[in-house]
Amino acid sequence: MRIKDLHVLPKFSDGWSYLYVEHCRIDQEAQAIAIHDETGKVPVPCAKLALLMLGPGVSITHAAISVLADHGCLVVWCGEEGVRFYASGMGETRSAVNFLHQARMWAHEKLRMKVIRRFYQLRFAEELDPELTLRQIRGMEGVRVRETYARASRETGVPWTGRSYHRGNWSDANPVNRALSAANSCLYGICHAAIVSAGFSPALGFIHTGKMLSFVYDVADLYKTEVTIPVAFQAAAAETDSLERQVRMTCRDQFVATRILKRIIPDIKTVLMVHKKDVSCDSVLFDQDAAAPGALWDPEEGEVEGGRIHPLGTYEAGEDCGYHDS
Question: If pLDDT is split at 50, 70 and 90, which confidence band does 137 have?
Fold first, then answer.
């Protein structure tokens, strides 16, 4: 039986963080999935899984993808050790209300600047002077990040000469830079899952721009100094042969310890100034019934009812009345 009402699913913040797999086969098992590899079969109750990262060598059945989508689990296809992001599925809402709000804030220059300042404000303990320019705030942010790297280096004994890596040759980077890339990749994945889960756009960034994951980078930057930088330096200091695996496991522990799943969506709503009253009845309806007709945009009324035939004369001859059978 397929799940029709998405409100019966656990909230993103109540779910597990993520699962990375590679070189295995995944198929459906009842209302969950099962992972098969050379060691045997592992059932995974995907109803509480927020993100499934598929690395190289994974084959997955259509039925497994279907049950993951039904349970609101975001599936991403990524590179070895989860350090490249190739593609993703869909999250657990069918409403566009959050995306439309994000688009309005992004498209209005003054509102966009307001959102950017709120993003930076979340990174600082002290209140930012409203007279500071964006360039001055970015300078302060640079100092804050450099101090974080320096402190992590002092605490772990891992030398730090700056961020340096070659995307075409993973092994060329030193251990701490590889660990940073692996940790940030995990953070991007979990932020991406939260963004899609709540119906926001990963592409409509406010600080970052021009890439399909610009908003993911905006959000992930809120947590790097708290989570991924310390994790990367600790992993590099351990001098383990399985550095990237160690990073992923430590990230998972830190995601739980810092309760990051419970924080991402509220933080996004804080910076975007999303209020409870902005959640329309339509958004609840669409999550209960994905086939429910949406409204039609109207230049005078804002929206008019969709899914029905409007009286003749409302539209010019030959113009689409907006009625479509579904």
Answer: very high
Residues ≥6 apart with Cβ < 8 Å to 296: 303, 304, 305, 306, 322
Nearest to 54 by CA among 74, 72, 40: 74
Separation between Cα atoms, residue 235 and residue 183, nearest integer Å: 10
What Å distances lie between residue 208 and 43, 54, 119, 152, 270, CA to CA?
A: 39, 26, 11, 26, 18
Least trusted range by pLDDT, from 51-60, 90-99, 136-145: 90-99
In this prediction the pTM is 0.73
Residues 6+ apart with CB under 8 A from 2: 66, 70
Helix, coil or strand: residue 117: helix
Residue 322 has pLDDT above 60, yes or no: no
Alpha helix positions (H), 73-201: 97-107, 109-121, 134-156, 175-197
- Rounded CA separation 252/183 (Å): 10
61 and 35 in contact (C-beta within 8 Å)?
no
Cα(222)–Cα(118) distance, integer angstroms: 11
CA distance 250 to 273: 32
Q: Amino acid letter at 227?
A: V
How many C-beta neighbours within 10 Å does residue 268 have?
Answer: 22
Q: Which of 315, 52, 289, 81 is nearest to 192 (CA)?
A: 52
CA distances from 254 to 49, 76, 141 (A): 17, 21, 23
Give, as one character, the DSSP assignment of residue 225: I
In one-letter notation, the amino acid at residue 3 is: I
